[in-house]
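### Sample
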Amino acid sequence: MAVQQAAGSDPYFPDNGDARYRVHRYELTLDYRPGPNRLSGTARINGIAGRSPLSEFFLNLADFRIGRVRVDGRQPHYTHRGGKLRVRPAKPVRPGAAFTVEVHWSGNPKPVNSPWGGLGWEELEDGALVASQPIGAPSWYPCNDRPADKASYQISITTPSAYAVVAGGRLLTRTTRASTTTWVYEQAAPTSSYLVGLAIGKYQTVVLADPGLGGVPQHGHIPAQLLPEFSRDFARQPQMMHVFQQLFGPYPFDEYAVVVTEEELDVPVEAQGLSLFGSNHVDGARSSERLVAHELAHQWFGNSVSIADWRHIWLNEGFAKYAEWLWSERSGGRSAQQLAAAAHRLLSGLPQDLRLADPGRKSMFDDRLYERGGLTLHAVRCAMGDDAFFRMLRGWAGLHRGGAVTTTTFTAHVARFAPEPLDDVFDAWVYGAELPPLPVPETRAAG
């Protein structure tokens, strides 16, 4: 499905992303040396101009040294300040025309500043990790950093041979020459810039499931000393994949990888076809299994079906939260109703000034958004009944696969499946701030 482009700049991050064009494909060729934390790269970016002549455009890129910029092979005028590489082509690009940008850059990558601390490229004790949500992608490559601008990627990374490189997508080749190895990954599915994941470290790779005919290849990349705990904590992920495909429809990408770093992470991080966990999420007791479910669910909701801008983040996090509850329900744990009741009790004791439809930048990662998002989907399920609700959910993931959506897109989609209008449900749960009563299933939803 064609990506629905958001009009204008993102209201939460007006300095990120340029709506005057869109990117079709990125080809990144990188060389990284972990010791000195030195990154050099070349990006070949295939773009398409919007409805007006493109006499100037910009890419988001952090504080690197720029070696060369070309537009369709010609040298443009450019400036690089404040995280923006502004480019003025020698000749304006015609409306709707394809064009190619080539950028060479180098330097010491580091996280970009944000209200939530540093985001993006993070140097580890022995390796590196990329966790870009929402605005960290420019910490390591030039990009049109807006979630609705989705493109395919090919990433080639050369590192010392002692290190493994894991990226979202399919590993095409791994070539060793002398003391370095080059890893080439292809992500064909449309991908938002913040979802381009990467991990560089000394990992052992294990097969989590024999995909069989038509199955989904699943791999884990973990430090060798954590393998016993990992083997138990992620043992049920293949079953999770099976359940989610029943509930949400086919897995939207070629394969799925999980990485566990030796260092602790505050929270796991989803990327396209890849999820990143810290060593603190692995204990051999399945203590973080709900997070395993949460990150896997993001592959459908947030990654394949993306948001047009950051106001709609509840469509990512609320859906992944509800997937935690569905996994619990389907795997012998507490029911979604029991978990909804617990979330409702939690929210009832917290400030009720958050609106899912537009939470504001400061609250876009507030725990209340996650819990209320899950409760909203439970309210929709209770009102629709299970048959209509899960048909709606599979339709949502299928119709908008590879696209970008808004809250209005979702409410209109639900209306096509609901036996009666749900305006009151959305007015209360999505557009209102006060916590509505706990939703309970109607009689027809039983069983």
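The chain is about 25% helix and 30% strand. This sample (Aminopeptidase N) is used throughout the tutorial notebook.
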